[in-house]
Design a protein that fits this description.
mainly alpha; about 0% strand; about 190 residues
């Protein structure tokens, strides 16, 4: 079972990495147990994800709202686990197997920073503080920052070149797009 202290350390490490401080990596429990416990971040982020899902423009779906929510929840879980599974092979190909656990732990905790950023923009939009155009602009800026954040985490977490880190960020993005594309496809049949 994860402790509050480990959650706080995970968040602290993620925030340090967001500030481009590589010492944030020392906050993570880079053991097998820490790896599995870092998926607690998915549970913490899930309510914000649900808010993002229920407030996005809804395409015509051929299924009930409850079924759509189930599809989105399954896609969320798959999205959280697909990248770590693929990275097992990528880390081996890059000869970075020894850094795999710490990197995935960092990725999981850093996802909270990303979700908090997008969640904040969404809440400000829903509250009427941000207009549509400004909200979309901030969303784009946040996306670009998140991609650079993921790049930095890959670079320092795996100790790889910037180009290899960019490839890993692209891979993560494509995996997420693929999973979400299937979820949307299921709902619009």
């Amino acid at each position: 079972m994860i402790t509050r202290e480990e959650i706080a350390l995970g968040i602290r490490g993620a925030l340090r990495l967001a500030l481009r401080d590589p010492s944030g990596l020392s906050c993570f429990n880079a053991t097998v147990e820490g790896f599995w416990r870092s998926f607690t971040a998915a549970l913490i982020a899930f309510p914000v994800y649900l808010l993002l899902v229920v407030t996005r423009p809804d395409p015509e779906t051929g299924i009930a709202a409850e079924a759509a929510l189930l599809v989105e929840t399954i896609a969320y879980v798959i999205d959280w686990f697909a990248f770590p599974v693929v990275m097992l092979h990528v880390a081996a190909a890059l000869d970075r197997t020894e850094r795999y656990l710490g990197y995935i732990v960092a990725v999981n905790w850093c996802n909270l920073v990303q979700v908090a950023l997008f969640g904040t923009i969404l809440v400000l939009r829903l509250a009427g503080i941000l207009t549509g155009g400004l909200s979309e602009f901030l969303w784009l800026v946040a996306l670009l920052w998140v991609l650079s954040y993921q790049w930095y985490v890959a670079r320092v977490g795996l100790e790889i070149s910037g180009l290899a880190a960019a490839g890993i960020v692209a891979l993560a993005f494509l995996i997420s797009l693929f999973v979400q594309g299937i979820a949307v496809g299921i709902q619009t049949r």
